[in-house]
Structures are given as structure tokens and as C-alpha cells.
Specification:
single chain; mainly alpha; Arc Repressor Mutant, subunit A
Length: 173
């Protein structure tokens, strides 16, 4: 009974938050959106908490009154975003295609530079790029940890030099 009274007065009780989340989930049908909107709703409650008047109704009724407002704001944002996306679909496709072409060119640029490295440098960098630790590389290649660290540093520097010789980073433009 005492716990129930505490929850009645606490606008941020776990039960109340979960109930609002379920209402918003039923309206949006997306758990991530419902989670975001629940947070937005309770931030709004926190912002205007001084306006709550218990003589006019319960905490639940007051908080439930925020649901339509939050949903209206969300739908308005979604509508504006869709309108922006519909205004310039060709520009977006062109931008995405250009981005893909630049990334592919960069990957090809890096691949060509790696191919020009000495086999030992290439093996060190590829093992490191695959996520192997310096210790794992040292064990696999029969080297000391300090030797691998030094060799990796020098291999990266040689790769950087090759990349700079072939021209600037296409992604920097």
C-alpha cells in the first residue's frame, strides 16, 4: 500500500514509464522509436512538472495527456523528413553513387599500395588489419613483441608513403 502511494506521486515510476512505452509502441510499432518517444515524453514531464495540479486530476491522467503531443511532434518530424527526401531523390542517388565510387576508388588505391609493399610488410599489416594483436602476430611469425611493434610502425610508414606518392586521399576532397 505504501509502495503504491509512492508510485502514485512519482511521475517517473518504472511501472508508469513502462506503461507509456507500451502505449507509444502500439502507436509507432517500432521499439526504438517508442523508446525515444518515451524519453522525450518524460523529459517534457520533467520540464513542466511545476504545472501539475493534483486538484485537476491524477498524475497518470496528466502524463497521459502528453502522449498525443509527443506523437504529433514525432509524426510532424517524420513528415518533414519524408518531404525533404521526396524533394531531391535524384540528388541523393547521385550523392550516394558518387560516395560509393569514391570509396571504391580509395579501396582500389589502398589495395594497389599494399600490393607494392614487401611481402613481410604486407603480411604484418594484413594480420594486424584482421584484428590480430601484436602478441599474436609475434607468436605466429616467430618474432619478439618489440620487433613486431617496430616492423608494424615501419610498414605503416611505408604504406603511407606509397599512398601519398599515388596522390591525395580521394575521401579528403
Amino acid at each position: 500500500m505504501c509502495q503504491q502511494r509512492e508510485q502514485d506521486g512519482d511521475p517517473f515510476s518504472a511501472q508508469r514509464i513502462h506503461r507509456i512505452y507500451r502505449v507509444l509502441l502500439s502507436q509507432t510499432r517500432d521499439p526504438h522509436t517508442a523508446d525515444d518517444l518515451t524519453q522525450e515524453l518524460f523529459l517534457e514531464v520533467l520540464r513542466v512538472r511545476s504545472r501539475f495540479d493534483p486538484r485537476r486530476g491524477t498524475v497518470d491522467a496528466w502524463i497521459n495527456g502528453f502522449v498525443p503531443l509527443i506523437l504529433m511532434r514525432h509524426r510532424s518530424r517524420v513528415g518533414r523528413r519524408r518531404a525533404r527526401e521526396a524533394e531531391a531523390p535524384e540528388e541523393q542517388v547521385d550523392a550516394r553513387a558518387t560516395d560509393l565510387i569514391e570509396r571504391l576508388a580509395w579501396h582500389d588505391h589502398v589495395r594497389r599500395a599494399i600490393d607494392r609493399l614487401a611481402p613481410r610488410d604486407r603480411e604484418l599489416l594484413l594480420r594486424f588489419g584482421e584484428g590480430q594483436s601484436v602478441r599474436e602476430i609475434a607468436e605466429a611469425l616467430g618474432m619478439s613483441i618489440s620487433a613486431v611493434t617496430t616492423a608494424l610502425m615501419r610498414a605503416r610508414e611505408r604504406l603511407r608513403t606509397l599512398l601519398e606518392q599515388d596522390g591525395p586521399d580521394p575521401q579528403a576532397a
